[in-house]
Amino acid sequence: MIDNFALGPKAAFAGYGLEHVKTTPSTNQLAFEYIAKMANDETASSDSKTGIWFVADQQTKGRGRLGRTWLSKEGNLTTSLLLVLPKQSKSLQVLSFVAAIALGDAIDEILDEESKNNLKLKWPNDLLFFGGKLAGILIEAQMLGDGRYAIIIGFGVNIKSAPEGIAYPVSAICQSGANVTEQSLFVALCDSWHQKFSLWNYGRGSKEVLTQWRNRAFGIGKPINVNQSGKILNGVFYDIDDTGRLVLLQENNKTIYVSAGDVNFETGMNS
Ligand code: BTN
Description:
Elements: H1 9-13, E1 17-24, H2 27-40, E2 52-59, E3 62-63, E4 69-70, E5 77-85, H3 95-108, H4 113-117, E6 119-122, E7 126-129, E8 132-143, E9 149-157, H5 182-200, H6 206-215, E10 223-228, E11 231-240, E12 246-249, E13 255-258, E14 262-265
Parallel strand pairs: 1-2
Antiparallel strand pairs: 2-5, 3-4, 5-9, 6-7, 7-8, 8-9, 10-11, 10-14, 11-12, 12-13
Bound molecules: biotin.
Biotin binds next to helix 2, strand 3, strand 5, strand 8 and strand 9.
């Protein structure tokens, strides 16, 4: 079993960097602090790296989507990737789907066939396992002084435990009986990220990324409601469009394109 954090061979060869800490409030925050350091210190730069992975044994103030908190105990994976992308980069919203399919493939590597079939992607970028939320992804961005974009992609995966007292079903990889550590999942994740990021290819491969996401999506064709800060939209989850927006078909045959919100399925599997 791997018990030290290291990059996978593909990520190492591709020139990614790795910063490992024992504890931090948030690995996304750690990446933001690194950006601030880059801005103030000419000797510090991420330019020599393809991207930098920040990983912590323990997060004390993890952040979730839509201002929520991400609870995670030791033994789970909390990691963030810092990327600096060129000015006027296009199709950045698809990175959220790149991240979800990369994490899905990484987890596949350690699951048996039955468990794999129960790993699904929930719009926009959650992972569900046997119907409970297994993992969440938080993407944050900042424009740098020179016009480039710093993108931070945070992954939280329940491996050894799922948080208690959550209002929706949750799950953890250990339920499958798979023998996995956060270190071994990290190796698989940074390698599969490299593969899917290459597939995306600065937007040229967005269509294929979204096809892969769709192939593993939970709930296409099902009745859903989307909660947008209290405003509820009802309809059928028809598809995602070619920018990743959720296409909601309403009873009056009106089509709504949803860019953000929380999806709830009438049949369960909510988060
Ligand atoms: C969600 O709400 O589903 C997204 C959760 C993202 C959690 C991860 S854990 C690593 C990284 N650091 C954070 O503070 N959040 C993300």
